[in-house]
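The material for today's practical consists of a large collection of protein records. A record pairs a protein's sequence with a compact description of its fold. Instead of coordinates, the fold is spelled out as a row of discrete tokens. We will come back to this pairing of sequence and fold again and again. Here is such a record, shown just as it appears in the course material.
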Amino acid sequence: MSGDPNWFLSTVAQSTAALVAIIGGLLISRLVSLAADRDGLIRTRQRLNVELISATTHADKLRAQRLNDGWSTFLEFATPQLVDSRGIISTDDLLDEVSLRGFDDEEWRADASESIERTLAAYAGDVSGARDVGWEPLYQAIESRLAKERADAERSAREAARSPVDKLIAQAFSRGPMLPTMSGVINVSRPVDQTRYQTLDRRFEQQMDADAAVRSLQARIADLDREISDIGRPRGIWVSAAMRSCP
């Protein structure tokens, strides 16, 4: 007795359709879940990018403040060397003579070279940069030294023009203990006052903390990028097939 095969084919078709519907539902649910996870990671990355911009701006501001404070201190202690040498000093020698803790000499190399050039130019009569912001102390020190040299030269000329009798009279009225003078002698190795050092140290610590925050945000964003890339990479034969079938 031969049976009707239609019922069998109909059952197979219905079962296959049901199985495909179940698998399709699971795949769609999985894809929706992956898309939601990916969107959440993207939003988190966007938020961290905004934080990174703010942190980077803050770190740059702190670095500029630190370098500005450090440069003012460096120039203060480099000025006597520049004035005494009349600018005839190498950049390396100047950096060796004046150093600040918490700073790399290379941070000052360009400015140190410029300070030497400005000193040479000022002693040659070019003071066009005397009003440049931050350089006033150097030009003031040079002007003071030149004024002292002019006064010394005039005094020497007057002394040379005196008669021997006038010199004897002047010596008689100038008796007294001959004490050594420290005028014109500046100890560039004197320590920076404690308040100045505390300010520089605080600037250094703030900059290190800000740089660490920037590096931390960069690392978190890199991790998120890897997670987003992994979510976009299909895993499993069915998920792969489904994702590749989507346009």
